[in-house]
């Protein structure tokens, strides 16, 4: 019996589905960041999981600085998304980040932002979210600015299913991250 293209495709789909079902101890995470200063821009992303994707972009043209980082980490326990974007021009700098994690063991959403005016108008914003191998979710965001007038905010909510309630606020992030792609220059403080 000859194997046709249709049966090859069916076999491939069956193997992919079985790999998702077989690995229930997998953990996934996603994180991103932007660092926008005068003529110096940085952006990055990191992801971990069976499926991982990360993309970042940084540019500085005609006095306008732009950075964007995006990451997705997915596995059998859920999906983690992180997105950060920032822009600066003239006396103003602004950045925002958002994280979303939905899985079997819980859910997390966080976002934060910063607007900075005057001085060096440098802004930094980023966040991380993920699911541990135990099924518990975590995440948080951070934003800061270095201008003369700076306003920041950050909100976070994490719910672990099967636990005695919800946790409000940021939880510690894991330092075991895989860098997918980084563009631009990092700043030294």
Automatic annotation (TrEMBL):
Q: Where is the composition biased (Basic residues)?
A: 178-189
Domain of life here?
Answer: Bacteria
Q: Keyword set for this entry?
A: Signal
Signal peptide from the UniProt entry? 1-27
Where are the residues of the annotated region Disordered? 113-189
Signal: present as a keyword of the record?
yes
* Listed Polar residues bias regions: 140-172
Name the UniProt record assigns to this protein: Uncharacterized protein
């Amino acid at each position: 019996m000859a194997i046709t293209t249709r049966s090859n495709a069916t076999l491939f789909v069956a193997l992919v589905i079985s790999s998702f079902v077989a690995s229930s101890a997998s953990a996934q995470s996603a994180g991103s960041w932007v660092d926008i200063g005068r003529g110096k821009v940085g952006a990055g992303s990191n992801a971990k999981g069976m499926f991982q994707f990360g993309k970042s972009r940084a540019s500085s043209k005609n006095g306008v600085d732009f950075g964007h980082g995006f990451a997705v980490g997915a596995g059998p326990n859920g999906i983690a998304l992180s997105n950060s974007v920032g822009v600066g021009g003239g006396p103003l700098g602004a950045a925002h980040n958002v994280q979303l994690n939905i899985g079997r063991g819980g859910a997390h959403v966080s976002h934060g932002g910063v607007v900075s005016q005057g001085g060096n108008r440098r802004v930094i914003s980023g966040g991380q979210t993920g699911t541990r191998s135990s099924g518990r979710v975590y995440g948080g965001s951070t934003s800061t600015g270095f201008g003369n007038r700076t306003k920041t905010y950050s909100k976070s909510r994490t719910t672990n299913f099967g636990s005695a309630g919800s946790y409000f606020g940021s939880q510690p992030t894991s330092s075991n991250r895989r860098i997918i792609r980084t563009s631009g220059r990092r700043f030294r403080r």
